[in-house]
Each structure stands twice: as C-alpha cells, then as structure tokens.
Design goal:
346 residues, alpha+beta, Nucleotidyltransferase, domain 5, 3 domains, 6-stranded mixed sheet, 4-stranded antiparallel sheet
Length: 346
Amino acid sequence: MNHNHLRTVVESGGPYATVYLEGRTPSADADTQLRLRWSELRDQLSESGAEESLLESIDAIILADEPTEVHTDGRTIVANSQGVLLDEHWDAALGEGDSAHYGEAPELGAFLRQECRQFDVVLVIAGQDGAAIRELSVTPDRERTEKESVHVTGDNDEDINKPRRGAYSHNQIRRRVDEIIKDNARSVADFVDRLITDHPSDALVLAGEVQGRTAVKAELSARAEEMLHEISEGGDEDEGAEEAIDVAIRTLVTRLAEEREAENSERLGESKAHGRAVEGRAEVEKAVERGAAAVLLLDDAEASAGEAEIVSAAILSSAEIGLSHDPMSDGIAAILRYDVGAALAD
C-alpha cells in the first residue's frame, strides 16, 4: 500500500510525540477516564523531554468538547514543535493499551498495521425498489465505520406494490413491475459506478433479497463486477439481517487481508529468488535510505527494532508498505527496485 499521505508528517522533522489511545466502551464518566489516561501518557512524554507547548497542542485534541468520542473511537496523534500533524481514529481492540512515544521519528508502526488491514467497502443492500448504499471502512477485528446510508431508486415514482385495477392484464402488470425493478437497478448500478470512480474502493458487497440482487448485478459495469462479492444476507430494516451482513463483511475482509499478506509473502519469495530483496534490519535500513526499496514489509504483529526510522525513510522514498505473516529476519524485509548488488554497493 502507498502511504504518501503521511509524507508531510515525516517531512516536518522531529522530535515527535506519538500517542495511541485505544477505543473503550462508552461510559458516563468517559471525560474523567480520558483525562486520567492522558495525564499518565502526558507525564511520560514530559519526562522524555517533550516541550510543554507540544503537549498543549495534544491537549487541545484529547480534551476536546466531545471526550466520549475520543474515549470510544480511539486516537492516533502525532505532534512536533509545529503542532499536531496527524489526528486519526485508531480502533485498537480493547486490551491493547494506550501508549506514548517521544523520539526523532514518529512511531507509525501500529497505525500502519491497521491501515494495511483496512478495506474500503461499498455495501449495496438491494431490493425491488432500489437499494440502500453505504460506504464502509472495515478491518478484520475492529468496529466498522460508515458514512450515512443513501437510498437510490429509479426515476419512476410508481409503487410496484400498489394494486392495479382496470384493463391491465396480469402479464401487463408483471411486465410493468419488471420494468420498474430494472429501472431501479440501472440507477443503483450507475450510482455505484460513480461512487467507485470518485472514491476508489477495495470491494463491492451486494446483499439483499434475491430479485433485487439479481437485477442490480445484471446492470453493473465490468469494473464493478471485478470487485463484486455477493452475499445472501439482506434486509435493510431487519436487525437480524443487519448483524448477519456485518458478520459476512468481516469474514470477507478477514479473507481479503489474509490474501493481501499472502501475496506480499509470495512476492518477497519471488524477489529473493531473483536477487531483488533483502531481510534484516541492517540491509533493509541501507536499502531504504538509498531509495532502493520498492516495498517495505513489516511483521504483521510485532514491531521490529529501529522500525520507526526505517518506516519514515520508506515514506520519504515513496516505497509501498505492507505486512507479511511469514517469518522474516528481524521481522522486516524489503523488495528492491533493482538487484541487491547495486542496491547495497558502497
């Protein structure tokens, strides 16, 4: 994955304070809990040498008007003498703990591991009257976040369930209903195509009742079909179906994350066989600093020694960053832009 959006953070220069606040269960005393949590981390940063002005800039984020949101959603915050450089939700699983770091490089490893497992999903819950469409950001083991649902239907405002009287035959009524369903499906497909064009997504999930799904699927563009995953769960207003959809999406995202890591491992193996990859801190650090790394691979679970500095250099050199589940020397590796000899030559 490309992480050029973090370039401005790394280019700003250290020292940096990096703060991770895990998301916790909402509570009536969230404000008090958050203040106590931040107070402990603040003291750690101060003892490590962080200036008061830097800490005050983080105060303004954490001790905001809506402390419950920070308490429940979690936060990744990076700041230096210029102020806060990064303020993002960090949906750490309960129990991973809060942490604070102060050093010449921002500690972005935990944040990047979450980003690498995060998938942008367009969810379409189809029915005969159109579809509810939602944009989701999902990780295998975190709470999903989503934008407000949009209901898309066709231009025809005729109710397909409305009783029809008069000279209409049964076949005429059936044809008219089919025309309305097709019109609705075409509008949904057009909306989806615009959405994935304007906001590139990792997956398109089609749920809902069978006839609605079938109609929408028939109208999807080739690009939408390439990223399509169809699930049998559905029913936009059915609480049980909502839970089933959530489980199905998490299952899908877990598989996609595993496939992404497997692809990284396979690519690393192939690159090593052709002399275009290195493992271990010393060689990876050298390759990254020289701009020779095309992809930096991190262990999917544990941070390696000196990781923060290597990650910063990788971001500055526009290297992609990904995860690997397979063992790597020192828990870190790099796929190179060219052969090892040229990359590491003195």
